[in-house]
């Protein structure tokens, strides 16, 4: 929630996450400000339609490495949906939720990189996120918050050995930042398959959303276009 508040103030421009739990979206961060590099366990993708279905349940219960079919079908084209998870040894290509284009675009012009809680053992394999090809003085200042050692400690401008929650509470207090409370009404997953037949803002299916989902868990879906140009203008982004 503190990151959402920092983004709303304009101090934070973009979040790159290694987590797959969708908590940044639940906290109110818009998709255009987020890259989930390893996918979202609550999102299913239709490759032909380029649609994303947000679910209120774990979509990976029947999937595995190199076997991403979820056995549910797209409402629009009838093709099998796939989870969005990127396992070790795989290379994710989905425009969203991975959003590599957004991550690299913001990394190229960032002046500060704040790493919260990450071991950085995986992210160190992505040198363009750190602008490692640039001269040291041209790279963004790196600040790390972690209880453990990380491979980037020696090049960090500052390393804080503390819990992320404690540090962000201090940051919010120092900046007099009003951290919002979680609001289920703005949670894109809250009623994604709640069975109420409602369509939340940003749904791109139109009438197709009224058809039953193939999961058998309700009538509403949260499918949205995944091209980055469309993501910036979806109604979904406006509710945050």
TrEMBL record:
Q: Where does this protein have coiled-coil stretches?
A: none
Alphabetically sorted, this entry's keywords are: Metal-binding, NAD, Phosphoprotein, Transferase, Zinc
Q: Does the keyword Disulfide bond apply?
A: no
Q: Which residues bind Zn(2+)?
A: 46, 49, 74, 77
TM spans (from-to): none
Example of a GO cellular component annotation carried by this entry: nucleus
Start and end residues of each Deacetylase sirtuin-type domain? 1-178
Keyword Zinc among record annotations: yes
GO molecular function (one): metal ion binding
Query: Which cofactors go with this protein?
Result: Zn(2+)
Q: Where is the active site?
A: 38 (proton acceptor)
- Per the UniProt record, one Pfam family is SIR2
Q: Please report which protein family the annotation says this sequence is part of.
A: Belongs to the sirtuin family. Class IV subfamily.
Instruction: List the protein's name.
Output: Regulatory protein SIR2 homolog 7
Q: Which organism is it from?
A: Helicoverpa armigera
Task: Recall the taxonomic lineage recorded for the source organism.
Answer: Eukaryota, Metazoa, Ecdysozoa, Arthropoda, Hexapoda
